[in-house]
Amino acid sequence: MFVHLQAMFQWVVFKWHLSEGRTERALCAAAANPAPHARQAAAAMLLTTLAERKELDALVRCAALAGEAERAAAARAKLHDAHTHNPYYDFLYSLYLSRGHFRKAAAVMYERATRCASERGGTELRRRYIAAALTCLRLASPQHAFLARPHTKGHNATPQVIGPEELAAELREGDIEALDPVQQALKKSEPIDFDTLYPKLKDADRETLLAVTKRTISTGYFLPRWFLQRFMDVDGPCCVRALLSGGRLVEAGEACVDAMRAALVSLGPTHLTAAPLALADLLTAELHDHLHHEPSKQIYEELQKLVEEYSEVVVRTSDDMKNIQIKHPIVN
């Protein structure tokens, strides 16, 4: 009975001090309350009131109510938007930092960043919260410098454990200025400037060339001849398929014609080069249905002629090599 009366008395004293703006006395009265449910209610009321007064730092310093305030703030943080003013995330972050719980502070900021990614208008703030989480992980001891990141596929998938390196990579992904110039160009809405990116694209790999090709086709611009030549050298079939799937039949035919000519020029007994005959067959089959289109018809006829010429040279070169072997046999 005495405990119940004391709890009621402390609750009245707490509310009186809080309403009068005496924050420290209100905190003392709430901490002195012997009833756990009363301390929880007081912590929840303090969160709301002190957040409005911008005095949450006083609650951060009150160790006696830390547990109750932490649980109340964690629940309320999830009920409010992450990218707008959310004092409950700020409170948890300050609380953990003040007590040296750097991994917990990182987890709070990463949770907020993850929510910002799925909320409209939170993209810019997401990087700020990831940077805060990264700073906290770097302050944590090595055995505690990790976070659990949920998988994007499936709600029941096992979370992925990440450290500062993975978090730093995630931060760089959102910073367009930190990307390679080609990747920057792919993320922008402007047409790709092939003259500026020539030093990067002239030695680019298959994946980069394919991405640039798809992006350029989607924007309605044409690909430079040197770029197509590089793509054909790296992976001719992939280049032709990308052009065909984008509706660039004539460009695909021209690229194949150039490849056939190069193979034909280099063909000889001492240097055999395989021509893209399979690609030529594929393209002539596609072009056959567009003979009413004059550029397509020209490419079709040129490809047919080059295939025939290449085949004749191959047969002649093969016969010459056979004759050389008959006249000048190799003796072991």
TrEMBL record:
Protein's recorded name: Uncharacterized protein
InterPro entries under this entry?
Nucleoporin_Nup160, TPR_NUP160_C, TPR_NUP160_M
Spell out the GO cellular component terms annotated for this protein, sorted alphabetically and separated by semicolons: nuclear pore
Q: What is the lineage of its organism?
A: Eukaryota, Metazoa, Ecdysozoa, Arthropoda, Hexapoda
Highest taxon of the lineage? Eukaryota
Give every NUP160 middle TPR domain span. 6-139
Ranges for domain NUP160 C-terminal TPR come to 202-324
Q: Where are the transmembrane segments?
A: none
Q: Which GO terms describe its molecular function?
A: structural constituent of nuclear pore
